[in-house]
Write a structure and sequence with these properties.
Layout: E1 5-15, E2 33-47, E3 50-51, E4 56-64, E5 72-79, H1 84-93, H2 104-108, E6 109-118, E7 120-125, E8 128-133, E9 137-143, E10 153-154, E11 167-178, E12 185-188, E13 192-202
């Protein structure tokens, strides 16, 4: 059975594609491969009756070809402050096992390479965002502005279901993943980044 959930907060996404990431508009990634990190900062919400507000999750992933058919390799980090129950439910939910709007994450996964607790720091200040997961993931980015001076946004992008809409388009100054796992270790500059808000609801049930 799937646990019901209702979650809201902020998300960041950084990858090694050129800005903006083609996955956001349903296209093949640059060079037909993509390594990136999806980060969620849950500000308020519950999974079942369990309060998970204040917790964070970061999913590092790699795929080749189109995102829908690439069979993603995934490694998940759960907030080190999570209780055992929170850890288990956050892992289930953010790997798609609880269905709902995040169920897509389960359908796309080819292999869960691992999961562990880690100190996660996700910050947004003005035009800047940063993601840090222990010593293995770090990224900093700045949102882009259009000719009218407003933040450039992508509305109803291809990843809106598992992240949110609208998404602020950004560009990383530096982005590094060092998991010691082939395909899940990169170091790049001046690549794609996004930030925004998420709101997920699932009534649960089913098999």
């Amino acid at each position: 059975m799937h646990s019901p959930y209702q979650l809201s907060g902020g998300f960041f996404e950084l990858c090694d594609c050129s800005s903006l990431c083609p996955c956001w508009v349903g296209q093949l990634p640059d060079d037909a491969r993509c390594t990136g990190a999806f980060a969620w900062k849950v500000e308020s919400g519950k999974i079942g009756d369990l309060d998970v507000g204040g917790r964070a999750v970061v999913s590092v992933s790699f795929h080749t070809g189109h995102r829908n058919t690439g069979g993603q390799e995934v490694y998940v980090f759960i907030d080190e402050r999570a209780s055992e129950a929170q850890y288990d439910e956050l892992l289930r939910t953010f790997t798609g096992q609880n269905g709902g709007p995040l169920g897509e994450l389960s359908r796309l996964m080819g292999a869960l390479q691992g999961h562990q607790r880690a100190p996660i720091h996700l910050t947004a200040s003005g035009n800047f965002l940063s993601v840090t997961v222990g010593r293995v993931v770090s990224g900093d980015a700045e949102v882009l502005h259009g000719g009218d001076g407003q933040v450039t946004q992508l509305v109803h992008g291809y990843l809106s279901n598992v992240l949110g809409t609208p998404a602020d388009v950004a560009r990383s100054s530096a982005f590094r993943i060092d998991l010691g796992i082939r395909n899940l270790s990169i170091e790049v500059r001046g690549r794609a980044a996004m930030r925004g808000r998420f709101s997920y609801y699932s009534a649960g049930g089913g098999e």
